[in-house]
Every structure is written in C-alpha cells, then in structure tokens.
# Entry
Amino acid sequence: MKTPFLPLAAICIFLFSCQSTPKNISYFQDLDSYIAQHQDIDIKYEPVIKNNDQLLITVTSPILDQAQVAQFNQPMNSYLAPGRSSVAQSPAIQTYTVNKNGMIDFPVLGKLHVQGLTKSQVIALITNKVSAYLAEPIVNLQIMSYRVTVLGEVMRPGPIAVSDERITILDAIGAVGDLTIYGNRENVRLIRDNNGKKEFYTINLTKSDIFAAPYYYLQQNDVIVVEPNNTKKRTSNFGSAENYRLSMFSLTFTALSVIIGFLNYSKK
# Structure
C-alpha cells in the first residue's frame, strides 16, 4: 500500500530545514534552580575613580554664604556668545580631569590622589581636608564621563550615557533595544579598561550566575560586544547579490524537483 502523504512530508521537512531557528534565545534558563540556591542576592556596587575621568566636585556649607566657599569650587565655564564681543559664563562648573598619575589639582588643597578610590572615599577625603578651612562643608561628586558602549548584534548599537553612575549589563542591553534574534546569548564579550590594562570577560546570558559576576555592574568605558550566532554566520554569504541569486536559484530548483516528484508519485 502506497503512502500518499510521504512525499508531502518530505516537502515539509525540506522547507523547515531551509529555516535556521536560533537556539538558546531565552535569558536565564536556570533561574528557578539558581534562586533556590541563592535566596539572598546582595551585590553592592560603587563606582571607582579611574584615570581620565571627568569629575564634577562642588563644595557648599549650610552656615556659610557662597562667597566663603567659592575658593574651593572651580570657576564657571566661559565662552564667547554668538554675536557678542564680551565673554559670557555657562551655568556649568568646570570639571576636574584625573591625570595619568591618578591626581586632580584641587583649589587650595593642591594635588589629591583619587584614582582607585570609590566615590564615597573621595568625598570623605575632600570633606576632611576642607574641614580645616570651612565649618560643616558638604562635598558633592559626580563622574561626568561615565558611559558604556554596546556593539554587535543588538537593535541600536552605540554608546550609552550613564547619569546615575550605576548601570548593569542588563540595563545596557535594554537601553540598546535588546539583542537581535541573531545575537549569540552564550558568547557576549565584555572589554574593560582598568587604567590602561585591558580585561576581557565572556558572558553567558542564558545562565543565572551572571547576577553574582564581577561584570554584572558595568564600569565607565566598558565595551560590550554581542557576537553573531551560527545562523547569522551561515547566512552571511548572502550579503552579495550574486550569492543571493545563486542561493535562491538552488532553493527554487530543489523545491520544484520535490514537487514534480510528488506529482509523478501521485499519478502512479
């Protein structure tokens, strides 16, 4: 007895085989078991000052007027306004650049070594030194040059400005619109510049141990590179029009051959 559905099944298998469905596109596939083993996930993070950072540092006092604390603050940025001959002042205060030796040149206090210190440690350092001159000083610090970059198989690759100095790798991926369907979630690369020394990490987004990894919180100037998966690599040869036409011709010819075989089989 002939089985008329056998050729039809062959066509279906052929058509589905022409499509490459990426595997492992779900994040944190072992999350349930990870939570069971790690009930308390407490990752503390505070940014560390690096060379070439741009720091906005202001000193104020609740009991002193602005003129008394002005000597500890950078002057306003000056610029030549369009159409004017006089120099105007920008509302933005000038920043401090951490030099290659990890130092900043602070008014009155002189050179301070801040590289390698956390944000709170720098605030405590300056507060302690300014207290010799001012009563009840309040020091605020913000890293103005804090940004990370995401490249590769994501929806909107490019740099991300970080305003609150705290960003996770998941925040960064979300900010660029998530990975494309062709992004390899098991082989995401992180490139970190640690004061001139390059550090490299390989990240598997399908595993939940990322939450306890040293790269879960990103640092300033981190670069994330999302590698293409095997599906994208196999189809990369279709980039040229000639290869695309040859591939479509081969696909059409094979499909017609199967259909003709099915019709001949049905006539028997």
Notes: The two ends are 12 Å apart (CA to CA). Confidence is low (pLDDT under 50) at residues 13-22, 85-91. The longest helix spans residues 241-267. Helices lie at 5-17, 31-37, 66-69, 119-130, 169-175, 230-235, 241-267.
